[in-house]
Amino acid sequence: MNNYSFKSPVITIFGGTGFLGRYIVNRLAKSGYIINVITRFPNEAIFLKTSGNVGQISFVKGSFSNLSKLTSLLSSSEIVINCVGILNEKKNNKFRQIHSDAPEKLAILAKDTGVKKFIHISSIGADQKSDSNYAKSKGIGETKIINAFPDAIILRPSIVFGSEDQFFNLFSQISCISPILPIVGGDTKFQPVYVDDIAKLVEKIIKIEKSTSEKNNSIYELGGPDIMSFHSLMLKMLTFIYRKRLIVNLPFWFARLMCPVVFILHKLSLNKIPLLITEDSIKQLKNDNIVSKKFLGFEDFGIKPKSMDLILPSYLKHYRPRGNFSDL
Fold this sequence. Notes:
The chain has about 325 residues and is of the alpha/beta class. The protein has helices at about 20-30, 70-75, 95-110, 135-150, 170-175, 195-205, 230-240, 250-270, 280-285, 310-315, and strands spanning about 10-15, 35-40, 55-60, 80, 115-120, 155, 160, 180-185, 190, 195, 215-220, 230, 245-250, 295. The strands form four sheets. It has an eight-stranded parallel β-sheet, sandwiched between helices. It has a two-stranded parallel ribbon with strand order 7-10. A two-stranded parallel sheet has the order 8-13. The longest helix has 18 residues, at about 95-110. It is globular and about 55 Å long.
């Protein structure tokens, strides 16, 4: 499908204004789908209009707290995609609420209203038996979704990178002002995945029938071509931004002691100082974040994920000492 028309299939996306969501919206709009983006603040989503034709992308004020009001909208949708997720808990946003309870309610509503496909973004490490509340809530959410919508598709990416990411950008910012780069879990392995590769997979999943692979057909684990330790990722990042910094790998026990200090600084700065570590994120960093062989992945759809070497320089170069002009 190349042309958008009023007869095009309708897709409803939750979290469409977020980091991954905006890439999915862009790809699906170019494929000609009619897209409803559910957002609490429609005025802040106007930038997505340029991804499609006039009238192709609509913004609907809503959230997980008022799903019942979206029943008619979902009744006219063929596909529902949930990209909503949080990395840290806040007063009104708890892991279980955002990752488990709300997605279950959405999946039930999608099933009841006749939605054909339900796609949910989870993460590698999701496990309802995990001692990390983040990973546990993700795992419980997956189980609840599959129970409510048996044909649902779960995508589990490793660390997602791209020009708006909060991983390489964050540590690059720290490197610009600090001679020391503290990290926790330096030996923990990651398999960073480019954000648009995930969007490309979503587009393919929507266009084809359910896979007949012998692997688990509900869960897809997504990682890029490079598997590296946290420490090695920081070295690579520093190479791209032309900076030499002392990378200090903090022991887990010491990092736990620092959590209250980091939290206080975060609050006193009115959230300007990022919440770099929490007790829950430390638990997550004890386990590798790479794809397993049990589930489907990019290769099952003929997608060759892009390497960090190809993408990172394009958006990290402004962190160099002379900015974008460092190559001159």
